[in-house]
């Protein structure tokens, strides 16, 4: 049995930070279930035909999210005068892009519900759109802004961030945010579906419950964060 798994490939040696994205896959046989905890090596193979039009990558690629339900791939990139979000089909064809109100994307997450889909982006910019977590429609319409745009902070009422790095959204609408891509915060927040604090943990450090520039967050099938 072949299980296809999207992944990101970055090449930091490319001149002028022209990063790109590739799709890779690994193969798992029925008799040899892969466990990442056993130290076994995943066998990745490069799909050299993805994307079909790599010339659309004109900035620095920082994040990618796959909407497997609708066959879409969202890519966040940075740079002056470049579209901040690129949208591709799963086959690698460029579909469209959007740019409004996104300054410096760091994390991106696709949230599918029974009523529709949306794309959440963490913005680590320091300009008028930065220090925020934003929800967009698949076509780029701004739906929700968490944080105080352009103003860094640690407040929970009103909710503030300082360069939030990543986001994970539960099916219930509850949200996890790691806040602190080099800013004043080094914390993990869980928010309710109406964006109120459920719990918060993290200070700067290497001890239990501490973080040093937390960069990503996810939740597994067992509820482990």
Automatic annotation (TrEMBL):
GO cellular component terms? extracellular region
From what superkingdom does this record's organism come?
Eukaryota
Q: Does the keyword Glycoprotein apply?
A: yes
* Keywords, comma-separated and alphabetical: Glycoprotein, Signal
Q: What is this protein called?
A: NHLC3 protein
Organism of this sequence: Chloropsis cyanopogon
Q: What is the lineage of its organism?
A: Eukaryota, Metazoa, Chordata, Craniata, Vertebrata
What gene is this protein a product of?
Nhlrc3
């Amino acid at each position: 049995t072949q299980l296809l798994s999207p992944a990101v490939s970055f090449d930091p040696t490319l001149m002028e930070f022209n990063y790109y994205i590739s799709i890779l896959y690994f193969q798992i046989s029925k008799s040899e279930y892969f466990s990442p905890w056993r130290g076994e090596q995943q066998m990745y193979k490069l799909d050299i035909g993805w994307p079909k039009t790599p010339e659309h990558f004109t900035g620095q690629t920082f994040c990618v999210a796959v909407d497997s339900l609708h066959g879409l791939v969202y890519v966040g990139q940075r740079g002056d005068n470049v579209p901040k979000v690129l949208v591709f089909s799963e086959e690698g064809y460029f579909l469209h892009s959007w740019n409004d109100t996104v300054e410096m994307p760091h994390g991106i997450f696709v949230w599918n519900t029974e009523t529709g889909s949306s794309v959440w982006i963490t913005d680590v910019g320091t300009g008028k759109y930065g220090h925020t977590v934003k929800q967009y429609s698949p076509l780029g319409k701004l739906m929700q802004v968490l944080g105080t745009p352009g103003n860094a902070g640690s407040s929970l009422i009103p909710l503030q961030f300082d360069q939030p790095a990543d986001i994970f959204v539960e099916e219930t609408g509850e949200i996890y945010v790691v806040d602190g891509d080099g800013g004043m915060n080094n914390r993990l927040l869980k928010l309710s579906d109406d964006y109120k604090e459920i719990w918060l943990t993290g200070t700067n450090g290497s001890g239990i419950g501490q973080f040093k520039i937390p960069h990503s967050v996810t939740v597994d099938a067992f509820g482990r964060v």
